[in-house]
Fold this protein.
Amino acid sequence: MEILVCVKRVPDTAENEIEVKSDGTDIERDDLVYSVNEWDNYAVEEAIQIRDKVGGSVTVVTVGDEESEEVLRREMAMGADNGVLLSDSAFEGSDGKAIASILKAQAEAGNYDLILCGAQADDGAGQVGGMLAAMLDWPYASLVNHIEIIDDKKVKVGREIEGGNQELNEIELPCVLSIQTGINEPRYVGIRGIRKVASVDIPVKGASDLGIDPATVGEAGAKVKRLDYFVPELGEGAEILEGSMEEKIEKLIEMLKAKGGLK
């Protein structure tokens, strides 16, 4: 089975104090520590597990600048077979639809049976996976937390839906799936694995290589434009209850009664 996994280089929120620029155009990116998007890491692990069970190969792809190559190498050190960097100055400022169209071009250049994306990667909008599926005219499922390969034509997927319920569907291949965290436990990437892929050639493809009109991507083709970044104003602070557990429970009950929550 040939699997393509879409990954993205993002600021590591565990290692950074994220601040917004004073003019509201972006976050402060100087000296930020970057890593692979968390959801994408789960998608790569799932792809590797599927490959190990049924055979085939895993290719990781990202849209970004030359520094984005580091996340491809990390995922290859994790176990992915190949990496592809989609990089061009024309891609800068692309909105979700443009990113999906760039990934579509790469998908059509290969012969993939399955495409996996993180459930959220594109600034939290969770839109690229669905758009990519629509552009390819492939079946799509989001928030997938279970995958079972039935045969070379179908896959069974479990989805997390409203109310904490689970939904099972059979989907025909090829298809696009957006992966939810918790579907697996991503493996540790050691120094040996990183060294092993350090010199592996990673092809770089631009707009002309992919047959993309630069006017349809980047800022020139963006239909959605970011107007402002801002930190919401803080409301009144929360009240912290002190004391033993019994005392906290008693105070909480009194507060609920006072506010009409209990009678």
User: Anything to note?
Assistant: Residues 24 and 229 are 5 Å apart (CA to CA). The first strand starts at residue 2 and ends at 6. The mean pLDDT is 92. The chain has one domain: 2-221.
